[in-house]
Amino acid sequence: MTTAPSFQKTYARRRVLITGGLGFIGSNLARRLVALGARVTIVDSLIPEYGGNRRNLAGLAGRVRVHVADVRDWPRLPRLVQGQDFIFNLAGQTSHMDSMTDPQTDLDINGRAQLAILEACRVHNPTLRIVFASTRQVYGRPDYLPVDERHPLRPVDVNGINKIAGESFHLLYSRVHGLRATALRLTNTLGPGMRVKDARQTFVGVWIRCLVEGRPFEVWGGEQRRDFTYVDDAVEAFLLAAARPAAVGEVFNLGGPPPVTLHRLAELLVELNGGGSFAVRTFPADRQKIDIGDFYADDRRIGRKLGWRPRTDLRTMLARTLAYYRRELRHYV
């Protein structure tokens, strides 16, 4: 696997733009890039529903530039992309339910804005390197497990359809216009900085908030199997994807440790927390319609091509995340 010194050679003194950079994964990526000596610029709308939080960059004052801007504000994009060596494109609407109740906004952010970003790059900075944050939601309900990149794309919600569009735009611009793009299909990503005020980013955030506040939480269904990626491992994948020529024009799944049922995940969180409780409930009808059942990813392709593998086991990622929110919860609710 690529080591820190080679990353330093790739990113030191290079100009890097992170869209959605005050969010969970984007801010962790920013921290790593600053440590590698990169000149980091962040674009984030700070719209409350979308996960950006200035607390995520605590301690980095003066070491990153932050533009509070919306990627739907297309006239601002050319100036933002000019002069950048890398773009990590993590701006997006992540809520599956919001995409069903407000599909036009999801389309604007996850579809139209992605095309506008790529057009700005094509016209004003065609030599940069761009990595797009896609999602396992593009697959829908699996035909087989683990799910590899050849699995049919059959989303169960508007969010998945629009993420396919955003991903496809990036790969098209790579093939046709020579814009060096890669897409990473993320599974459930956990760690410090994740959204915990609601389930717009992940249901696990709600569970963690309840545990830290001493309240019971609900597990819907419980027998579904899921895999989880720790945020540090996800950051490593983004850095590798942007650094390796072999990743250009490609799409890769990210995965994690062996999958567990949601019921077992809840038990493990209670154990690591030293107490707490949960109740197993049937799915609400609106959620049941878009639940994908069992899902875990086959991440061997990114291992073969780029040498990536998840390093953090489930107990460790949960323990670290719980410890973070015991200290920091007041900044995230």
List the main descriptive attributes of the protein structure presented here.
single chain; 333 residues; alpha/beta; Rossmann fold; 7-stranded parallel beta sheet; two-stranded parallel ribbon; 12 helices; globular; disordered N terminus
Give me the secondary-structure topology.
Layout: H1 4-11, E1 15-19, H2 24-35, E2 39-44, E3 64-68, H3 77-81, E4 86-89, H4 96-101, H5 103-124, E5 129-135, H6 158-177, E6 180-186, E7 188-190, H7 203-213, E8 217-220, E9 225-226, E10 228-230, H8 231-243, E11 251-253, E12 260-261, H9 262-273, E13 278-281, H10 285-288, H11 300-306, H12 314-328
Parallel strand pairs: 1-2, 1-4, 2-3, 4-5, 5-6, 6-11, 7-10, 8-13
Antiparallel strand pairs: 9-12
